[in-house]
Amino acid sequence: MIRAQTEKESKLHLMHVMSIVETMKENKDVQEQGYDWLIQIYEKMTAPRVTHRWEPTENCARVHIVVGDSFAGSMKNALRKLGREHSDTFICLRDHYAYGPLWHFHEKEGLLRRQEWLQNHIQSDDDDRDTIFRSNEQLAQQFDSIPPSASIYVWGANNAHEQSGLRYAIYMLRDKSNKIFVCDAVDAEQQLFHTPPPTQQWYTSGELNTEKLVPILELSQAYTPIDVEERLGLEQEWLVLAEDTGSLRVIQDGKVANVPADSYDAYLLQTVEQLHQQQEEYNFIKSARVIGQALSSAQQYVSDCYFEYRLRELIYAGKLEIKGIPRAMRYYSVRKPI
């Protein structure tokens, strides 16, 4: 049976399913991979909730720092299968670091500015938003609680969301003398299972299933910790990100880069046009369909929340017409002006 889920979890699973199905329809070469993704979503929806405190303790052997609830959930299940739920602990960075200002995010003033921006621009459930805000405020305390004897594994795949979070984590660990290991679960999967590189760059750690994460966790035990020079470099890269007041980040030339907020606007308009061409009669298109199509074809990982925000901005600018009320993507449709 499907366990009780929050609205945010249900929405995330639905958007993943829509994105995967669109990709499988357009590219038959990824159907087997898409099937694995759908199985993973099913496992997450049917897995029972297990209450267990994963925060760092003074006796823990390892601390895993991960970006995103989905990846954290899969990693916890993998650690249980390895019998390491008592030796390994977690810090989960729950915010989305690819969008919204990161200016002085590591300080209270920056946190408040980010909260204000998200409240003014991004559609989300108030309870979910407040939970993330509280989580951000508690991160400094969680980092401080890491014991000096624990090995620290910071996980991040090649997308702006996880790489920004990874740099933030390294900066927060700047006063720690612990051994720090930087891990990419997606890259490890390709090494272990000889899977071809993903056709799109939005592939994230959160899309790996538990079965694949078990050997990935075992492989990470053989990694070499990063040296002082690499740590300082990542810390400095975070400080550069944290001085920018922009609201969108992507991967450019292998690094996280701040780009204009409207960078995807032309792509969204093109997506609407493509969907219009599939219609027998020119009509409004559900915004959820536009966003799902855009997600499935995007060359980098982008949140549906950010695409929905930009869709509204295009409406306000008169570049799209609207039918309905833009309180959430399921409540309105759009079309290009006739």
Plain-language structure description:
- With 338 residues, this protein is of the alpha/beta class.
- It folds into 3 domains: 1-45, no CATH class; 50-251, Rossmann fold (3-Layer(aba) Sandwich), CATH 3.40.50; 265-335, Arc Repressor Mutant, subunit A (Orthogonal Bundle).
- It is 49% helix and 12% strand.
- The chain contains 12 helices and 9 strands.
- The protein has helices at 7-26, 31-46, 69-81, 108-121, 126-144, 160-172, 185-193, 210-220, 228-241, 265-277, 287-297, 304-316, and strands at residues 62-67, 88-93, 151-155, 180-183, 249-252, 255-258, 285-286, 321-324, 332-335.
- The chain has a 4-stranded parallel β-sheet. Strands 7-9-8 form a 3-stranded antiparallel β-sheet.
- Helix 6 links the parallel strand 3 and strand 4.
- Helix 4 packs antiparallel against helix 5.
- It starts with 6 loop residues before the first helix and ends with a strand.
- The mean pLDDT is 89.
In short:
By secondary structure, the chain is α/β, with parallel strands linked by helices. It has helices at about 5-25, 30-45, 70-80, 110-120, 125-145, 160-170, 185-195, 210-220, 230-240, 265-275, 285-295, 305-315; strands at about 60-65, 90-95, 150-155, 180-185, 250, 255-260, 285, 320-325, 330-335. The protein has 3 domains: about 1-45, no CATH class; about 50-250, Rossmann fold (3-Layer(aba) Sandwich); about 265-335, Arc Repressor Mutant, subunit A (Orthogonal Bundle), CATH 1.10.10.
